[in-house]
Amino acid sequence: xxxxxxxxxxxxxxxxxxxxxxxxxxxxxxxxxxxxxxxxxxxxxxxxxxxxxxxxxxxxxxxxxxxxxxxxxxxxxxxxxxxxxxxxxxxxxxxxxxxxxxxxxxxxxxxxxxxxxxxxxxxxxxxxxxxxxxxxxxxxxxxxxxxxxxxxxxxxxxxxxxxxxxxxxxxxxxxxxxxxxxxxxxxxxxxxxxxxxxxxxxxxxxxxxx
Length: 210
Prior knowledge:
Low-confidence stretches: 99-121, 145-151
Strand order of the largest sheet: 1-6
CATH architecture: Alpha-Beta Barrel
Largest sheet: 2 strands, antiparallel
CATH topology: TIM Barrel
Number of helices: 7
Strand content: 5-15%
Radius of gyration: 18 Å
CATH superfamily: Glycoside hydrolase/deacetylase
Order of helices and strands: HHEEHEEHHEHHE
Structural class: mainly alpha
Shape: globular
Number of domains: 1
């Protein structure tokens, strides 16, 4: 989760959603604050991006994630060094299930996203059906042994791409869905996070990211 891309993490609805997900025992992992390509940033800017999202997590739910994924998967030796110095475990996908590739493509900034024209009615339904069909075909093509330790990417701007349907579908193929940390052998949820402490008083939190 990032801080300020399509939605602001401090918006009351975003905070409620984050808290609900955390309270339901899902693993929370981090993106940089603004979903910027870390390869394009200086070491200082990378740290600022991560420190800012860390502070948001710390205030809202009282934890700082240990696991993170670089936007676009871009992470050279320099970026890895900075993130490892910050005690992050970097998680990437190696089976891309094409959830991000259906047109229109997911945009990279809130400004671009706000200008997207939503599809409605039969056009939306046709696009959704086409996307889920391609996604299901990609899942069926993954060897059963591949998912023992590897991550699948279920991206895309449509909720349907990561919906209950998607979870139930991969389960019907015999896969077990679990948090990334548990898949990597870490069963203690306390160790999924660099810090665990009481969250801030919700009344004291900002409601915007500006």
